[in-house]
Every structure is written in structure tokens, then in C-alpha cells.
Design a protein that fits this description.
33% of the residues lie in helices and 19% in strands. The longest helix is centred in the first third of the chain and has 18 residues. The protein is built from 11 helices and 16 strands.
Length: 366
């Protein structure tokens, strides 16, 4: 068997592409980090009530260290005309281009993420008493990755002031990416410059809580008991699906218990793109969860369009509509029992057509 690697979950949507540098860093993170580390690449995070978004290149959830945000740049040293604490001026094909200092960019992303996590005031994430009341329990760090600039090159360019605005512990260079596993992990852990005396690693509950806060699209509302109209088989399958997910409670969710997809379900749901797909799985493997996720993402990515969901089980159609309402989805998704939808189409497009049922001797033909 091959060596276990870190999990990479891509947040790229249809038509999005990684740069060469992002692909290289993703491969290195997967190869050189431990298998209990979870890495999100280019996954959208909504940071406030105004729906403002950030798209960090990588958000790394390392149980041993904490949360690390990395911003990757394909810049070459001779293309950087000048750089200060906030901005950089690049010369690309003879034209000057302004860009944000990537360390400052990563710092801004990190602070937005910390603020979002602290806002929950969840016991797994923030201190509830003492001088750190309301502050994040979990260490965080940020940095930039230059895939085409080595440490030696930067040393040789010492007179241009680059080192002063690119702190050593906040930058990973080209030669760092060629390090062995231990050295690379040490480089990443040294980026955590703030000491958290009572931190002894992230528990799985904390990791799942962070995932649910940063990426609420993976939250699955917990089923209520004894839902009317559901068959025994439907209830059993839903129960099995929710046994595979992790239940946590977030104050911002009005105190309701919520479930988050497991990592495999989330990876599959995010990976689905255009075209036909067949998802096979035993009862309780998460097929319904993935369907709901995909519907919500299609509506979000295609504003003004409609999504049609058809299923053969009447009670499942009712349950899906109920779940979508609980998610706050009011428009854009229509859920129908297949035969009921067929009847609706006939009534809409062939008014007066008399629908015949097997053995009923119905008249007419479509």
C-alpha cells in the first residue's frame, strides 16, 4: 500500500483554473503533510452579512498546529520593480501592474477567518472566560509562497528592501518546496509565531466546527424524529446517512444541531461539474446529501436559472422540499415526484388530455 497523504479539497468552480504555482504547491502539500491534515484550495468563504467573499489559495487545517492560510505567487524576482508592506509593482511584458503584497493579502484573509470563527462564540472555538474571553482558542498563521524565487536570490537582492517587507517566517521559497517531509513540516510550523500555552492540538469536533463555519454549504440539518409521510425505508436511509456525519451545534444556527458532510462526501460534491453523473452507493452513504449540495451550488452559480429535481419516491420529494426550506432556499429549485411531474406537463402542454392508467382504459395518446 502507498503512503497516506494529506487530503486536498478543491473549491474551484466550473471554468476556474489553478496557476502553475498553485498546482505545484497543492502537490507538495499533499505529498509532504501528514494524512490527518485537511487542505482547502480556492474554496470560497463568505466573511460577513454583506456576502463579501474571500478566496484564499490554501486554508490548511493541521490538528497539531492550527489554521494556516497561504497565498501563492508565480512571480519572478526580475519582474518585481518594487514592493512595500502593502503593495507590489510588477512589470509584465513591459507594462506595470499593481498587486497586493501577498504576505499582507494572506494576513487579511487570516484575520477575516479568525473574526468569522470568533463571531460564533462556540465553546469549541473561543475562550469563554478570562482575559482571552471571546478570542480564538486555536493558533493561526499566514504566509506567502514564491514558487520561482529562492532564498539565495532574495539574499542577493538585499539592497532593494524586499526582505524588510517579506518577513522570513511568513514566506516559503522555491527551495523550501524541494525540502524533505520533516523540514517542510518544520517550515510550516515555524510560521505559527504566536504562542498558545493551552493548545494541545485540534480535536475532530473543532475541525468539523471550523469546516461548518467557514463552509456552511457542507452543513446538513439534523433530521427530526418521526417525520410524517416518510416510509420506513426512507427513514432508515436518512438515519444511516446522518450517522456518517458529525453533529455539532453552532449558536449562529439558532441553537439547532447540525451535521457536516464527511470529507469523502464533500470532495465528491465539490468535484461534480457539468454533464451526466451517476452516483452509486449503499443506503446511508450520503447520496441525498450530495444531491442537496449540488442543487444549492447550481442555484448560487447560475443566478436566475432553475434547477429541477425528479425522484420516484413521493415522500422523498416532500422531504427534499422540506430540507431546502430549512436551508433557506425559497427559489430556483423545483422538486417533483416523477409521475406527478409528467402529469403536470401533460396538463400544462396538452390541456384536456385524458390520462390513462395501466388497466384503466384511458383515452388519447400523448
Amino acid at each position: 500500500m502507498g503512503r497516506e497523504m494529506a487530503e486536498i479539497i478543491s473549491g474551484l468552480s466550473r471554468g476556474d483554473q489553478q496557476t502553475h504555482g498553485e498546482k505545484k504547491v497543492a502537490l507538495k502539500l499533499k505529498e509532504l503533510l501528514e494524512d490527518d491534515v485537511l487542505v482547502y484550495g480556492e474554496a470560497k468563504i463568505i466573511i460577513d452579512d454583506y456576502k463579501r467573499e474571500i478566496h484564499p489559495d490554501f486554508v490548511i487545517l493541521d490538528p497539531k498546529s492550527g489554521i494556516l492560510i497561504l497565498e501563492v505567487k508565480d512571480w519572478k524576482l526580475d519582474k518585481i520593480e518594487k514592493i512595500n508592506a502593502n503593495t507590489a509593482t510588477l512589470v509584465i511584458e513591459g507594462e506595470k501592474k499593481e498587486a497586493e503584497n501577498p504576505v499582507e493579502q494572506a494576513r487579511g484573509y487570516a484575520h477575516s477567518i479568525v473574526k468569522k470563527l470568533e463571531k460564533t462564540r462556540h465553546k469549541e472555538l473561543v475562550h469563554k472566560i478570562g482575559k482571552h474571553n471571546g478570542k480564538l482558542k486555536i493558533p493561526y498563521a499566514f504566509g506567502a509562497v514564491f514558487v520561482h524565487i529562492s532564498r539565495e536570490e532574495l539574499e542577493q537582492a538585499a539592497g532593494n528592501g524586499f526582505k524588510e517587507v517579506l518577513p522570513e517566517k511568513n514566506v516559503i521559497y522555491k527551495d523550501d518546496l524541494d525540502s524533505d517531509k520533516k523540514k517542510f513540516q518544520d517550515i510550516l510550523r515555524e510560521m505559527f509565531i504566536y504562542e498558545y500555552k493551552n493548545f494541545h492540538g485540534m480535536k475532530q469536533d473543532q475541525i468539523d466546527c471550523i469546516r461548518g463555519v467557514l463552509y456552511p454549504e457542507i452543513i446538513i440539518v439534523s433530521p427530526q424524529e418521526n417525520r410524517g409521510g416518510m416510509t420506513d425505508d426512507s427513514k432508515a436511509e436518512e438515519s444511516q446517512e446522518n450517522q456518517k456525519t458529525k453533529t455539532i451545534e453552532l449558536p449562529e444556527m439558532s441553537g439547532e444541531n447540525i451535521c457536516v458532510m464527511d470529507k469523502e462526501q464533500e470532495k465528491l460534491a465539490r468535484r461534480l461539474q457539468v454533464g451526466d453523473r451517476v452516483i452509486n452507493g449503499v443506503a446511508g452513504s450520503g447520496k441525498t446529501l450530495i444531491l442537496l449540495y449540488r442543487c444549492r451550488m447550481l442555484v448560487e452559480e447560475n443566478r436566475g436559472s432553475s434547477v429541477l429535481v425528479l425522484c420516484f419516491n413521493v415522500s422523498l420529494a416532500a422531504r427534499l422540499r422540506e430540507l431546502l426550506q430549512e436551508y433557506g432556499v425559497r427559489d430556483g429549485i423545483k422538486v417533483h415526484h416523477f409521475h406527478g411531474w409528467c402529469r403536470e406537463q401533460l396538463e400544462t402542454h396538452k390541456p384536456g388530455y385524458e390520462l390513462g392508467l395501466p388497466g384503466g382504459g384511458g383515452k388519447g395518446s400523448p
